[in-house]
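step=encode ok
step=design start
structure_in=
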């Protein structure tokens, strides 16, 4: 499954251009979409799900052009987990999924089979009789994921699936996405760098409607080669001075002071050694270039 996005633009009535002439090619496996709040990720995803019509440019999915006449065919190939998911609170998990399946036109027996399979996969079988409103945030997100998979989509779009979840549940969702990425394409949007470092090898970075980078994670790391510095600060005062003068990626308390990672093309004028680039460092470097 390959998705080609060419010169895509979305400008809203209020004149905000949320997606600005972007080009992107997304192929099998998990593809990360990284960007701060308001970068345009949700808008792009809404275009890809056919919910929103772009102002300009084209999208095609395995050669099928996004156009009015093709929307139904495209929708059959897509699963979508939106950022805000609040499925029928008074239905049980099972009822809710059966209803969603019915809405998607999946034959009843086949739908029940798939629900059983995916509830098992997402460790929700024992909770299937619970009302949706009784579930934790993480469980709701997992039901949302099952809902998105019911039509066995070739292209799964997940919008900030880990936001607001505890660390254990975040790891669980990430691992599920890795499992479900076999034989399909997953677009995984997030503003959490760590989500992508753990799951994908290709990604795009968005800022204010533009693509700052797209391609291999490894290549993205190399863009910040030589620009990461481990600086040691003995005291709070020294640490604050470094934070004031340089762009800091992380700060960690270590024995006898702080280890501060600074992103800078020039060597900082403090005691420091060059560090290996992490995705977080490369992201900060790109965002501030
Ligand atoms: N329907 C709309 N009408 C007008 N402006 C919109 C609309 N939807 C989004 N925007 C604006 O478009 C920009 C991009 O928003 P979008 O939701 O796509 O970003 P995002 O990267 O998904 O961020 P977040 O993680 O906060 O959802 C923002 O400035 C937002 O205010």
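sequence_out=
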């Amino acid at each position: 499954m390959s998705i080609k996005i060419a010169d895509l633009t979305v400008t809203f009535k209020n004149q905000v251009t949320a997606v600005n002439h972007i080009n992107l090619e997304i192929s099998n496996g998990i593809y990360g979409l990284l960007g701060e709040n308001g970068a345009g990720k949700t808008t792009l995803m809404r275009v890809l799900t056919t919910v929103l019509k772009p102002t300009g440019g084209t999208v095609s999915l395995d050669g099928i052009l996004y156009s009015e006449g093709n929307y139904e065919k495209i929708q059959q190939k897509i699963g979508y987990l939106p950022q805000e998911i609040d499925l029928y609170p008074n239905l049980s998990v099972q009822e809710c999924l059966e209803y969603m399946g019915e809405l998607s036109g999946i034959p009843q027996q086949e739908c029940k089979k798939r629900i059983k399979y995916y509830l098992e996969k997402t460790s929700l079988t024992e909770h299937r009789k619970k009302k949706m409103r009784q579930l934790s945030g993480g469980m709701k997100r997992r039901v949302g994921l099952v809902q998105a998979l019911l039509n066995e989509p070739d292209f799964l779009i997940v919008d900030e699936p880990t936001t607001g979840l505890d660390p254990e549940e975040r790891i669980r969702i990430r691992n599920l996405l890795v499992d479900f990425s076999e034989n399909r394409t997953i677009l995984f949007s997030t503003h959490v760098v760590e989500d992508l470092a753990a799951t994908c090898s290709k990604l795009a970075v968005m800022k204010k409607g533009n693509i700052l980078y797209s391609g291999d994670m490894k290549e993205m790391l190399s863009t910040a080669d030589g620009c990461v510095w481990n600086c040691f600060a003995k005291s709070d005062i020294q640490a604050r001075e470094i934070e004031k003068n340089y762009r800091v990626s992380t700060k960690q308390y270590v024995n006898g002071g702080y280890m501060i990672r600074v992103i800078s093309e020039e060597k900082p004028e403090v005691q420091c050694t060059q560090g290996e680039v992490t995705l977080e460092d490369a992201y900060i470097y790109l965002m501030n270039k």
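step=design ok
step=annotate ok -> The mean pLDDT is 94.
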